[in-house]
């Protein structure tokens, strides 16, 4: 039977979501724990691939489990799974779904948040990126506004990505907001994101903030479709996947998506 897993993770100690041969990943840890609990080897498919050091305050994955797992009870299973997982990974819910539901391909929308701070804060170390000049939110937002819409984002796509894959995305919003006296967040929502896209966008917005670029330069940058023309990728530790949206028919009729509502609203 297929289930969705609603989870969150601190990506500091992982090479990213995807299993790698020589480094710990969120996927490999989760697969190992689920296999021990289920009594058979299982694989896990995530809603996306996060880079090394990137966090997720809300993430969805799917896996196929034996029917005996449901017979043992999801509540007890959830307690046991979390007991075996490291403190940096937490599963909030195990939700039975149809066999056609896919954590990655069924998703209709994703949201990322990039966190920046201007003053030294020991409690933000590894969870936000410190910048050493004041952040001009209005100037950065003026540049961000040029990015909204269905466009070719090849200039923000990491080199080495499948050349046959489309680089067009529908970026619904890019909001640059001061959330505290010395803290700024960049929130991006799209139907899909390219590899390294958010970090490249934030790095470019920081160049706009510094005066190295003008907000209107974004037009020519997008038209170039050239990754070397965009800014340096911002550090991974400031990036969080915060929401994944699926069509209503993907979820069971009686499922209220408690984990998503609680985690997304709290975040």
What does this protein look like?
- The protein is of the alpha+beta class and about 270 residues long.
- It has two domains: about 1-105 and about 245-265, 2-Layer Sandwich (Alpha-Beta Plaits), CATH 3.30.70; about 110-240, 2-Layer Sandwich (Alpha-Beta Plaits), CATH 3.30.70.
- It is about 25% helix and about 25% strand.
- The protein is built from seven helices and ten strands.
- It has helices at about 25-40, 65-70, 75-85, 135-145, 195-210, 215-225, 260-265, and strands at about 1-10, 45, 55-65, 90-95, 110-115, 130, 150, 170-180, 185-190, 240-245.
- Strands 1, 2, 3, 4, 5, 6, 7, 8, 9 and 10 form a ten-stranded mixed beta sheet that branches.
- A hairpin with an 8-residue loop joins strand 2 and strand 3 (about 55-65).
- Helix 4 crosses helix 5 (about 195-210).
- The longest helix has 14 residues, at about 195-210.
- It starts with a strand and ends with a helix.
- The model has no long low-confidence stretch (mean pLDDT about 95).
Secondary structure blueprint with pairings:
Blueprint: E1 2-9, H1 26-38, E2 44-46, E3 55-64, H2 67-72, H3 74-84, E4 89-96, E5 109-117, E6 129-130, H4 137-145, E7 149-152, E8 168-180, E9 183-190, H5 197-210, H6 217-224, E10 239-245, H7 258-266
Parallel strand pairs: 3-10, 5-6
Antiparallel strand pairs: 1-3, 1-4, 2-3, 5-9, 5-10, 7-8, 8-9
Helix pairs in contact: 4-5
Q: Which short descriptors sum up this protein?
A:
alpha+beta; 10 strands; 267 residues; Alpha-Beta Plaits; ten-stranded mixed beta sheet
